[in-house]
């Protein structure tokens, strides 16, 4: 708050005083009063007025500076009305009341949306669990009535299952939720699980799997990591070249982390697309060429990795292949315990 | 014959599981009433329980806890809830294993076998028989009329898959899927090499031509 601006605000008050004083001076001059008397009247008139304005200015400045400081220190700015000092002067009291009412109404509004979102998330989760029952029964029926046609339906149902799973993790990913549990597990367990899950594709498409012996232990939520790995490996399979497909999985142990690397020799991602692959709904050229790309898989991977504190990065060359790195941090604390 | 109780309220799953598991040589008991389920379980005297969590009357956790009060019968929880927290809960209630829907049937079978094996270490011998050929799963050896030969992990898995499916042709793809499901990730060529080695080992202890190749179809043990 600048003094100039403050005075500008009081321009009308000052103007009236000046006009009043000017009229008085005119009258006094007509009455032939001496100059030093008029000067004294000027001092007597304006000294209290200016002092009052200055004092008020200083008070106001202090008050607003304090408020600004508070606001600065707050992460959630809307909490200001909760912690600011109760004002004493009338104008500010009224203003304070208005601020509180606005805040309250905003909170109600936000809560309404929060509840809506929570309900929606709960609905999605229940729905996912419900739809898994018919999927499970369909798979059993297929298993019990084996034929080529049934097998094809089975493949399609597996895809449905994959999409349903994506929906579930999407619902989970947008909340800091109680759904995850960090514990120690063998990295190879997750890898085996994902490979088993994609076994049919590996075998039928004759993809060469190079699996290094991986003996690392990491700390994370195994289910979420399984989901992430499944997205990456099924992507690698989806964007594989027609012939001589190859997927290589290995791990590197550093002092502070373990890096899991999934390398394929598929069609690759062009440089201009590469930085966008983690964006929501981004499918790129391949997505348009190959069916069944929703652009959700990698977006979810990135989001879940962030929640789990893992780093994920992709390097790729068009026509040569893609390499995905997932970094699991290992702190000293974990190593010792 | 091992007896399994399936406690599952979805009729389709219950019936299909019954068909599926019966095919693999288990005796199945699958109640469709859940009011007195705990008494039912205690009376049934089964070797294993496959237990769903979302059930009418009592939920699976409650049943699990109640059954554990006076029985050590193995319990495998089958559920569509799949988070680590759910798994932890099930284990805390005394379940032996936890499988999520929809399940890979081969893995379901493997888990059932593993839990049963753990539960009855003493009377259960890890041996598959094919005529006079003995396949010992626990130490990976084959035995025929006193002669013994050691098998590798891959050979062991291949032979056990063929014996389990004796009398019918096992296609290369099905055989490979079976191997992949038990964490043996071998490619087409390695499979051929392994089968050749397996045949040679079988010949060395005196069994000839027991694994037949059906060109274009797969392998078979008659």
Describe the structure.
The complex is a heterodimer of chains A (337) and B (222). Chain A is of the alpha+beta class. Chain A has a five-stranded mixed sheet with strand order 2-4-5-7-6, with helices on one face. In chain A, strand 6 and strand 7 form a beta hairpin. The mean pLDDT of chain A is 87. Chain B has 222 residues and is α/β, with parallel strands linked by helices. A five-stranded parallel sheet of chain B has the order 2-1-3-4-5, with helices on both faces. In chain B, a hairpin with a 3-residue loop joins strand 10 and strand 11. The longest helix of chain B is centred in the C-terminal third of the chain and has 17 residues. Chain B is elongated. The model of chain B has no long low-confidence stretch (mean pLDDT 87). The chains are: A alpha+beta (337), B alpha/beta (222). At the A-B interface, helix 5, helix 7, helix 8 and strand 2 of A face helix 1, helix 4 and helix 7 of B.
Question: What's the short story on this structure?
Answer:
The complex is a heterodimer of chains A (337) and B (222). With 337 residues, chain A is of the alpha+beta class.
Rounded to the nearest angstrom, the radius of gyration of chain B is 20 Å
User: Could you tell me the mean pLDDT of chain A?
Assistant: 87
Classify the secondary structure makeup of chain A into a structural class: alpha+beta
Percent in strands of chain A: 5-15%
Oligomer: heterodimer
Largest interface, counted with CB-CB under 8 A? A-B, 38 and 32 residues
**What portion of residues of chain B is helical?**
40-55%
Give the averaged pLDDT of chain B, no decimals: 87
Rg result of chain A:
35 Å
The proportion of residues forming helix of chain A, as a percent range, comes to 55-70%
* Order of strands across the main sheet of chain B: 2-1-3-4-5
Main sheet overview of chain B: 5 strands, parallel
What would the principal axes of the Cα set say about the shape of chain A?
elongated
């Amino acid at each position: 708050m600048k003094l100039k601006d403050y005075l500008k605000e009081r321009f009308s008050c000052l103007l009236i005083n000046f006009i009043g004083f000017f009229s008085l001076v005119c009258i006094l001059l007509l009455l032939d009063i001496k100059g030093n008397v008029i000067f004294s009247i000027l001092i007597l008139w304006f000294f209290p007025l200016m002092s009052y304005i200055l004092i008020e200015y200083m008070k106001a400045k202090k008050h607003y500076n304090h408020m600004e400081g508070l606001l600065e220190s707050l992460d959630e700015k809307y909490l200001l009305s909760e912690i600011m000092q109760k004002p004493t002067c009338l104008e500010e009291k009224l203003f304070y009341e208005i601020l509180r009412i606005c805040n309250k109404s905003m909170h109600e509004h936000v809560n309404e949306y929060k509840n809506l979102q929570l309900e929606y998330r709960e609905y999605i989760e229940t729905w996912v669990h419900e739809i898994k029952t018919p999927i499970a029964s369909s798979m059993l029926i297929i298993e019990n009535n084996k034929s080529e046609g049934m097998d094809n339906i089975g493949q399609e149902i597996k895809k449905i299952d994959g999409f349903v799973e994506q929906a579930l993790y999407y619902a989970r990913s947008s909340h800091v939720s109680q759904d995850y549990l960090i514990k120690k597990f063998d990295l190879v367990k997750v890898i085996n699980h994902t490979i088993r899950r994609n076994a049919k594709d590996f075998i039928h498409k004759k993809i060469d799997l190079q699996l290094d012996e991986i003996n690392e232990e990491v700390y994370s939520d195994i289910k979420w990591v399984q989901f992430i790995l499944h997205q990456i490996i099924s992507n690698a399979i989806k964007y594989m070249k027609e012939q001589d497909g190859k997927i290589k999985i290995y791990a590197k142990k550093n002092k502070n982390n373990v890096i899991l690397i999934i390398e394929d020799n598929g069609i690759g991602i062009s440089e201009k697309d590469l930085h966008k692959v983690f964006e929501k709904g981004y499918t790129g050229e391949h997505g348009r060429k190959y069916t069944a790309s929703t652009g959700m898989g990698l977006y979810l991977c990135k989001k879940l990795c962030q929640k789990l504190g893992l780093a994920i990065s992709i390097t790729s060359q068009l026509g040569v292949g893609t390499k995905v790195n997932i970094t699991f941090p290992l702190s000293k604390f974990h190593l010792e315990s | 014959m091992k007896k399994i109780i399936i406690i599952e309220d979805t009729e389709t799953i219950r019936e299909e599981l019954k068909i599926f598991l019966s095919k693999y040589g288990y005796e199945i008991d699958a109640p469709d009433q859940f009011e007195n389920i705990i008494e039912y379980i205690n009376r049934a005297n089964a070797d294993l329980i496959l237990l769903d969590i979302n059930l009418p009357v009592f939920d699976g956790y409650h049943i699990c806890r109640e059954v554990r009060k006076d029985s050590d019968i193995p319990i495998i929880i089958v559920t569509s809830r799949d988070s680590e927290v759910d798994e932890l809960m099930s284990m805390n209630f005394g379940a032996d294993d936890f499988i999520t829907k929809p399940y890979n049937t081969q893995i379901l079978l493997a888990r059932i076998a593993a839990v049963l094996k753990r539960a009855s270490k003493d009377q259960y011998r890890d041996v598959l028989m094919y005529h006079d050929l003995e396949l010992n799963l626990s130490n990976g050896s084959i035995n025929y009329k006193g002669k013994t030969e050691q098998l590798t992990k891959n050979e062991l898995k291949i032979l056990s898959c063929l014996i389990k499916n004796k009398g019918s042709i096992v296609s290369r793809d099905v055989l490979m899927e079976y191997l992949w499901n038990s964490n043996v990730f071998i490619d087409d060529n390695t499979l051929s090499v392994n089968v050749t080695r397996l045949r040679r080992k079988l010949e060395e202890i005196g069994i000839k031509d027991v694994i037949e190749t059906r060109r274009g179809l797969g392998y078979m043990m008659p």
